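Reopening this one. Same input as before:
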Amino acid sequence: MPQTADEPDAVAVRSWCSLALEALGREREAIDAINVYPVADGDTGTNLYLTVESAAAAVEAVFAAHETGTSVPSAADAVRAMAHGALIGARGNSGTILAQLLRGMAGVLAEGTGGDRMRLALDRAAAWAREAVAHPVEGTVLTVADRAAAAAGRAAPGADTAEVARAAYEGARTALDATPGQLPALARAGVVDAGGRGLVTLLGALVEAVSGRGPERPYEAPVPFVPAGGEDAECPAGDDGAGAGPAFEVIYLLEAGDEAVERLRARLDALGDSLVVVGGDGLWNVHVHVDDAGAAVEAGVEAGRPYRIRITHFAADRAHARPEPAGRAVVVVVPGDGLAALCREAGATTVLARPGEPPASGELADAIRRAHAREVVLLPNDADLRHTAAAAAEQARARGVRVAVIPTRAAVQGIAALAVHEPDRSFDEDVVAMTSAAGATRYAELAVAERQSWTTAGICQAGDILGLIDGDVAVIGQDVPGTARKVLDRMLAAGGELVTLVLGENTPPTLAEALETHVRRGHLAVDTTTYRGGHQGAPLLIGVE
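Same output, byte for byte:
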C-alpha cells in the first residue's frame, strides 16, 4: 500500500501495520480517555495499540523469513499473518473485535487485490465483526465499521484501492460523530465511541498506505463536555451497560472445533455479557465479562484447550481497592522455566520468552503492573527486545511508575544484575550497580545450525554446533561439549572470575560437570556455578564475569 498502484502487495500491508501502530501510539491516551462503554476502564486505546502491535510483529516475522535474497512475501502471506497476529494478540473487547475485522479483510484480500476486492473486504470485515459479538449495540465500533463498508460500496464504479479506502474513511468519520446520538452512555459523557475512533485511526493509516498520503481531512475529536457534578462524576448505570457490571474480564486463546465453540458461546452468554468470540480454523480468541471467572475458564476447558488466560478484576479497579504499591521491584524476561523459578525466588517478577515467540510490549507492561511497585527495574535480556521494553516502560510511566530499563542482552547478564540488586539503596544507585554488573558479564550461547550458511567464523553446515560470543558466531563445532570448551577458553582468555552455565532442558548434567573440571584445570581462581534453564531453546548459555 505505500504506492499509488491499484495492487496492494506485502510491502503495502507492512506499511499499513506500521502506520497504524504509529498513529495509535500517538492517539492511545486520547482514546483511553474517552473509553466509557462497555466498561469505563480507560484502556481501549491501549488494547487497540497492543492488538495492532501483535499484528505488525507477525507481518515482520513473515518478512524475516524472506530476508535472504531480494524476494518479499506474497500479499496473501502478509495479510494472513496480519490477521493471525491480531487474533493471538487481541486485547480487551475492542482488540478482539478489531482482530475479527482484520480477519474478515484478510480472507478477501488474500484472494486478490484492487478496488473491488477492497470493497468486499471491508464489507466482510463489518459483517464478521457483528456476527462475533453476542449482542451487538449500535453506536459502537460495529456501527462505524458498517458505515465505512457502506461508504466504500458507494465509491465510483471502477474506483481503485486508494479511492475506496478514502470513501471508507470518510464514512467512518461521519458515523463516529453520530455515535453519541445512538448510545446513551456516550451522550452522557459527551464523547464519541472509543473503539470507533480507533477504527477511524486505522482506516486513516490505510488511506496513507495505499495512496502515499494521509487523509485530506484528519479526524479531530470534538472537545467533550464535563457532565454535571464535575470531571469525577460517574455516569449513571443503565441498560446500556456503562455503569456497574460483572466483576471480571476473562480473555483466552482457545483451540477447539466449530461445534464446541458454538456450545461455548451459549454457555458464556448465560454467564455474563460483552461476549465476543473471534477466529476460526481451530483457533479462537474468547472475551467475556463475568462474575464467575472460574466458570468462564472451565467452559473453555470443556470446549477445547484454553491458554494465555488473562483475568482482570474490574471491581478492584473501580473501587481503587488495590493495596499500596511496594517500593521497588525487578521484572525479568527469561528464556526458560528453570530460570523463571530462580528469578522468582530472588523476588523478581518474570516474563517467559518462549523459543521463537518473544514477548510483546503488552506482556512486559502487564508484568510491570503485576509487580505493583512505585519503582521498577526491567531486564529484557535480549537485544531484540530493546524497543519492546522501551514501549512497555512508557506505558508504565504514563501510570506514574518510575521505570529503568537496563539493556541486558542475555539471560546471564540479567542474573548478574539481579544478584547485586538491593532495594534498600536509592533507585539511581541500584540501577547503576545492576547496570555495571550486567555490563561486566560477557555472554555466549550454543545453537544448532539449521542450514548451510556464512558466519563470522566461516561456513557452517546444517547440524553444526555454533558457539556465539556476545551475539556473533565465534566457534563452529561438531558436538556440544567440544564447542563449549572452545567458547569458554576464548572468553576466559580475556580474564574472568566467575563462569555461569545455564543448561537447557535436554542437556545432560554431566556436561556441566565436565565443563567445571575444564575450567578448574585450565583457569585457576575461576569459580563456576550451574543452573537448569528448562525449556529455553539453546542447549547451553554461558556467562563470564
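So the earlier flakiness isn't reproducible anymore. For the record, The longest strand covers residues 272-280.
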